[in-house]
Amino acid sequence: MSKQPVSRRQFLNYTLMGVGGFMAAGMLMPMVRFAIDPVLAEGAAGEFQTTNQKVDELTSTPVRVDFSYEQQDAWYTSEVTETAWVYKDENGEVVALSPICKHLGCTVNWEGDNHKNQFYCPCHGGLYEKNGNNVPGTPPTAPLDKYPTKVKDGFLQLGKPEPQTIA
Amino acid sequence: MHRGKGMKFVGDSRIPAERKPNIPKDYSEYPGKTEAFWPNFLLKEWMVGAVFLVGYLCLTVAHPSPLERVADPTDAGYIPLPDWYFLFLYQLLKYTYASGPYNVIGAFIIPGLAFGALLLAPFIDRGPERRPIKRPFATGFMLLALASVVFLTWESVVNHDWEAAKAQGQIVEGPEIDQNSEGFQIYQENGCINCHGETLTGGAAAPSLVGTGLSPDEIKTIAVEGVGTMPPGQFKGTDEELGKLAEFISTLEAE
Amino acid sequence: MLNKIYDWVDERLDITPLWRDIADHEVPEHVNPGHHFSAFVYCFGGLTFFVTVIQILSGMFLTMYYVPDIKNAWESVYYLQNEVAFGMIVRGMHHWGASLVIVMIFLHTLRVFFQGAYKKPRELNWMVGVLIFFVMLGLGFTGYLLPWDMKALFATKVGIEIAAATPFIGEQLKTLLAGHPDIIGAQTLTRFFAIHVFFLPAALLGLMAAHFIMIRRQGISGPL
């Protein structure tokens, strides 16, 4: 016997909690797993969508490339259209930038509103360099997202936009 | 309970400021006929509950809940069946004096009387006696009602063709059907759709038309002369339409 | 620490008597299966409540994926059953629970009836109990339609025809249930969804509260 013997009442209370816990776990475990399934689901990574932009036709001037693909949202399939600004940099590498402004999600334009050699966001006057870097002193705080690119049969393929860091 | 003058309250509330000791009676000190709800009795109840839950979960895992194919209002051949606890009512409505012109009896008066009597049982059975044997009318009527519910449910179960019911509801992977195609239009106009369904996968009254392996000529013959339970003369269009229909059906292949 | 928080709340709200009343009331010997095994018949009410709790919980979780729309209802049920982890189990719990709750409430009703426990002073509690039974049947009926599969649609057609046999107001009742005089379709599904998920559960919770309060007021009926 220890110094504080467990009384009958305490013992019963502990057992009751144990049984209650078992019941709660048995009931809730499947349901909670069910509810958090989207959190645990593996993201469909590395899916590239083909655009109808020929890589050979790209120049150093950014062009607007629209592409659409079927998006499967659980039981609902829909056609989604996305846009990218695509050009070739000095090394001849293809660069595809997301047009979503990092400030509040508006759509930026190449040389919009007479801003030479810059991306311009009409909503709050955000400016980005050609490589996507945000111009200091304008609303955006991060560079434009960049699409991973691939080439297939001469056509450009784009993946999911990723944030880029430019020193 | 302390009332009136001299009581102190928390703030300007009605909650007494004086704390009473909060120690419950220890029933183990009084081995009597009763016991405390918490924790003694509740523990027993929850143990029963835990055993019940395990059985319940086993049932859930062993028998996945059924899901039939998506509802198709055009499939007139489907024989519906309610959940098992409505089967007695469903069966009752099959009898002569509970259906047709007497429908109101089966669908309203009998259930109404039964449920009304159940609801008002305390006012019908008013005697002070509680033992079933001492109140023969209440017990008798309840046993009678119970027996008829069991009987009706049983009748309904044995008279139902469970295999056909299973087949008619199965999820069938049908082909992609172009509902704007000429063949489908003809299929629809001639009423083939009523038995063979919107997806041409058949139903309770007719087989699936997908992947039959029949040639267009064989299909033409069946459409005009019928086959099996399908009566002749179903097709009423022109020969040209018949050709298109046969071509359409013969090209259907399951994915 | 926990005790201090409890004391702080208790001083202001005096919550102790609330749960003391539930915790400390004495349970008589004749309903205690520990004393007489035959007292297991008194478990059916509690098990009904237990399954009801499971039904409410699993139903809440199912609505995370379900849509009450004739185009998507079946698709979403198919998705949650076959694609979502444990979807089979959660839907199974709700499906089988619906049957079990009817079984349990039926046995509970028979126990109370054959023991004559509905007699004075418990008439009101019996009536509330029978109303709970009706609400449960209503939940079963409305829930049957929601997956929007073949048997759901056609069984509901039959059920609504039965409701239409009601004298004088049959046609109105049918339209009220189906949302349309002729079609069992989009409007029926949303209506049944609302009834199944909001109206009947609200009624059920109210009735169950009344049921339990009355039991605490009157105590369990004595032995035969």
Automatic annotation (TrEMBL), chain C:
<dbReference type="InterPro" id="IPR027387">
    <property type="entry name" value="Cytb/b6-like_sf"/>
</dbReference>
<dbReference type="InterPro" id="IPR005797">
    <property type="entry name" value="Cyt_b/b6_N"/>
</dbReference>
<protein>
    <recommendedName>
        <fullName>Menaquinol:cytochrome c reductase cytochrome b subunit</fullName>
    </recommendedName>
</protein>
<dbReference type="GO" id="GO:0009055">
    <property type="term" value="F:electron transfer activity"/>
</dbReference>
<comment type="function">
    <text>Component of the menaquinol:cytochrome c reductase complex.</text>
</comment>
<dbReference type="GO" id="GO:0022904">
    <property type="term" value="P:respiratory electron transport chain"/>
</dbReference>
<keyword id="KW-0479">Metal-binding</keyword>
<keyword id="KW-0408">Iron</keyword>
<feature type="transmembrane region" description="Helical">
    <location>
        <begin position="96"/>
        <end position="114"/>
    </location>
</feature>
<dbReference type="GO" id="GO:0016491">
    <property type="term" value="F:oxidoreductase activity"/>
</dbReference>
<feature type="transmembrane region" description="Helical">
    <location>
        <begin position="39"/>
        <end position="67"/>
    </location>
</feature>
<dbReference type="InterPro" id="IPR016174">
    <property type="entry name" value="Di-haem_cyt_TM"/>
</dbReference>
<keyword id="KW-0349">Heme</keyword>
<keyword id="KW-1133">Transmembrane helix</keyword>
<keyword id="KW-0249">Electron transport</keyword>
<feature type="transmembrane region" description="Helical">
    <location>
        <begin position="126"/>
        <end position="146"/>
    </location>
</feature>
<keyword id="KW-0472">Membrane</keyword>
<keyword id="KW-1003">Cell membrane</keyword>
<keyword id="KW-0812">Transmembrane</keyword>
<dbReference type="GO" id="GO:0046872">
    <property type="term" value="F:metal ion binding"/>
</dbReference>
<dbReference type="GO" id="GO:0005886">
    <property type="term" value="C:plasma membrane"/>
</dbReference>
<feature type="domain" description="Cytochrome b/b6 N-terminal region profile">
    <location>
        <begin position="5"/>
        <end position="224"/>
    </location>
</feature>
<feature type="transmembrane region" description="Helical">
    <location>
        <begin position="193"/>
        <end position="215"/>
    </location>
</feature>
<dbReference type="Pfam" id="PF00033">
    <property type="entry name" value="Cytochrome_B"/>
</dbReference>
<comment type="subunit">
    <text>The main subunits of the menaquinol:cytochrome c complex are a Rieske-type iron-sulfur protein (QcrA), a cytochrome b (QcrB) and a cytochrome c (QcrC).</text>
</comment>
<keyword id="KW-0813">Transport</keyword>
